[in-house]
Design goal:
The chain is an alpha/beta fold. It contains twelve helices and eight strands. The protein has one domain: Alpha/Beta hydrolase fold, catalytic domain (Rossmann fold, 3-Layer(aba) Sandwich), CATH 3.40.50. Strand 5, helix 3 and strand 6 form a beta-alpha-beta unit. The protein is globular.
């Protein structure tokens, strides 16, 4: 089962024309690729409730310099829904490794947005691939604040509500257009034309909503930060990009999470909300290009 339908939803997706279905690790996954095949590769990873549409304006900017690969995570977009364990960070990382092997890819750069930043970091910790650098934009390395659904999630985290009750409540809320607009406003970002329609269609897909909720409930960023405190962990250079208008993951929270890294990451702030790749794709592309030059992936 896929969360969205390529025939009915696909025409509204800005990345549909450049995408294809690739089977790997027991799942059919949606993969978008652009740019010269012989250029250094950058892998783009979206966050909870996202899809490749989050990078629609960023991909062509990066494709001038890189081979760009963007994927729909398991249970998101046009990728099939896995068993429940496949919606946790470790399960997603395992599937991405399988997909990269199927594609014959070895990304030189990992760039993740929100929860995708945590997935990028864990991909590097696992050691199966050796990227030259990691870029985390609006990195969800702590539990988000000021999110309209924060109350039910906090109640679940405190053990006051069971998973099934939280999932049922949030799924009902997510189907309403008013709630979707409230969530989008709370990000502090301005969406490009057409992206609101993508989020509305995501919210109307029960499979997508359930997958997003299960991913959120099992996200546990503190576990990842605990891993990073292990002195044996080795990471490539990490750049964390925080939005000054991001009320979900504000810059001070990014700075606090950065203290858990074995080597202090480079911190950059930009005038943006939580949906940085959608609101400021040009600035995100500049940062990725600068990191590539700084780490020798591209010549200066």
């Amino acid at each position: 089962m896929r969360t969205l339908d390529l025939d009915t939803d696909g025409p509204y997706w800005p990345t549909r024309e450049r995408g294809r279905i690739v089977r790997a690790g027991g799942l059919a996954g949606f993969v978008v690729q652009d740019g010269p095949p012989d250029a250094p590769e950058v892998l783009l990873l979206h966050g909870v409730a996202g899809t490749t549409h989050c990078f629609a304006l960023l991909i062509p900017l990066l494709a001038r310099h890189f081979r760009v690969t963007a994927i729909d995570l398991p249970g998101h977009g046009f990728t099939e829904v896995p068993e429940e364990a496949g919606l946790r960070r470790a399960g997603m990382v395992g599937w991405i490794h399988a997909l990269l092997r199927e594609l014959g890819s070895s990304p030189a750069l990992l760039a993740g947005h929100s929860a995708g930043a945590g997935i990028a970091i864990e991909l590097a910790v696992e050691g199966e691939i050796e990227p030259a650098a990691i870029i985390g934009v609006n990195p969800s390395l702590v539990q988000p604040r000021n999110v309209p659904l924060a109350g039910p999630l906090a109640a679940w985290g405190a053990g006051l509500m069971p998973d099934r009750v939280v999932a049922s409540l949030l799924a009902r809320l997510a189907r309403t257009e008013v709630f979707v607009d409230q969530v989008l406003r709370s990000t502090g970002s301005t969406l490009p034309p057409g992206h609101r329609e993508c989020y509305l269609r995501i919210s109307r897909s029960p499979a997508q909503v359930q997958s997003a909720i299960r991913m959120m409930i099992g996200w546990a960023p503190h576990d990842l930060l605990g891993q990073l405190r292990n002195p044996a962990v080795s990471l490539p250079p990490v750049t964390l990009v925080a939005g000054t208008r991001d009320r979900w993951i504000p810059p001070q929270e990014v700075r606090r999470a950065a203290r858990s890294f074995p080597t202090p990451p480079r911190l950059i702030e930009f005038d943006e909300g939580h949906l940085g790749p959608e609101g400021s794709p040009e600035r995100v592309a500049e940062i990725v290009l600068e990191v590539a030059e700084r780490t020798g992936v591209l010549p200066r």
